[in-house]
């Protein structure tokens, strides 16, 4: 097992500064944007709250935290595993963009909902969000030699036949899982943790994709939040059982990503995002 004492201690300190469900509810009820920014400046999001474009800065903060964690991870093996996990972030961003394109949402809304990653920075998110549909998006990915281009191209016929995004989601999830599992074949504790996390996530995603193929698709923020809750619950169990493993920074990054997604929706509330009463449901603890 890699010695992750230092990085995990740092992560626990950072995690204590998350707003959490109660802080997010308080933020939602703040009367003015300035009052909301005042609350953000007292949390882990203080740096983003100083930026002119708070929503974009919040998204970038997830990438910054991921890189900071990587810098403090000791050992080539756990660092390689941590990098491989970035494919899951890429997958979530791509699925959010495809969902927005399918619904005919404005590019500005898609960009606000999709969290950029190391492989999909802001400028690429903007380009993909401005495509005319799935076919055009896949063509852009092909030109960029993206690892997701071939699986998505293979899933396009089924998507055209059924007009169901579940086919494309399954292709994206499968490609991301394959790469992570390929990096986690060893028997060390961190590899075991990653395989367990991926297997649980795969079960949740397959159930969600099956529901979508049956026509039970919910609003995008409801769908994303349900998956986040299930995945964070599994990560908390792993972090408690293995406090010196990669499960601890994985949990922190998952909670931060979920909080940033909700913060961006709060910034959209009453404009292009969900209504306030629906936001209260989403803010229930994960």
Task: Give the strand content.
Answer: under 5%
Q: How many strand segments?
A: 0
Helix content: over 70%
Distance between the termini: 29 Å
Identify low-pLDDT runs.
none
Number of helices: 16
Category from helices, strands and their pairing: mainly alpha
N-to-C SSE series? HHHHHHHHHHHHHHHH
The outline comes out as: globular
Strand count, sense and barrel status of the largest sheet are: none
Domain count: the total is: 1
Radius of gyration: 18 Å
Fold and architecture overview:
α1 runs parallel beside α15 and α10 (134-143) packs antiparallel against α11 (149-162). The two termini are 29 Å apart. This protein has one domain. The model has no long low-confidence stretch (mean pLDDT 83). Helix content is 74%, strand content 0%. The longest helix is centred in the C-terminal third of the chain and has 25 residues, at 189-213. The chain is mainly α and 286 residues long. The protein has 16 helices and no strands.
């Amino acid at each position: 097992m890699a010695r992750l004492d230092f990085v995990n201690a740092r992560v626990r300190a950072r995690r204590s500064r998350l707003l959490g469900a109660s802080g997010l509810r308080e933020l939602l009820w703040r009367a003015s944007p300035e009052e909301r920014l005042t609350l953000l400046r007292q949390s882990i999001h203080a740096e983003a709250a100083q930026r002119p474009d708070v929503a974009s800065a919040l998204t970038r903060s997830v990438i910054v935290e991921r890189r900071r964690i990587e810098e403090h991870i000791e050992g080539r093996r756990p660092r390689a595993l941590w990098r491989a996990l970035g494919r899951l972030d890429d997958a979530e961003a791509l699925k959010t963009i495809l969902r927005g394109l399918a619904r005919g949402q404005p590019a500005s809304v898609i960009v606000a909902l999709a969290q950029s990653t190391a492989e999909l920075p802001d400028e690429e998110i903007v380009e993909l969000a401005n495509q005319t549909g799935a076919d055009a998006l896949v063509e852009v990915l092909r030109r960029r030699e993206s690892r997701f281009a071939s699986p998505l191209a293979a899933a396009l016929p089924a998507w055209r036949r059924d007009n169901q995004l579940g086919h494309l989601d399954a292709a994206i999830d499968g490609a991301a899982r394959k790469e992570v599992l390929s990096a986690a074949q060893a028997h060390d504790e961190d590899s075991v943790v990653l395989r367990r996390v991926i297997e649980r996530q795969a079960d949740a995603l397959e159930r969600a994709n099956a529901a979508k193929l049956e026509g039970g698709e919910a609003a995008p923020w409801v769908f994303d939040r349900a998956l986040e809750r299930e995945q964070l619950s599994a990560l908390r169990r792993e972090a408690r059982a293995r406090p010196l493993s990669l499960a601890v920074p994985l949990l922190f990054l998952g909670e931060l990503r979920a909080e940033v997604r909700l913060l961006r929706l709060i910034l959209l509330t009453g404009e292009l995002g969900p209504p306030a009463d629906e936001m209260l449901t989403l803010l229930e603890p994960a």
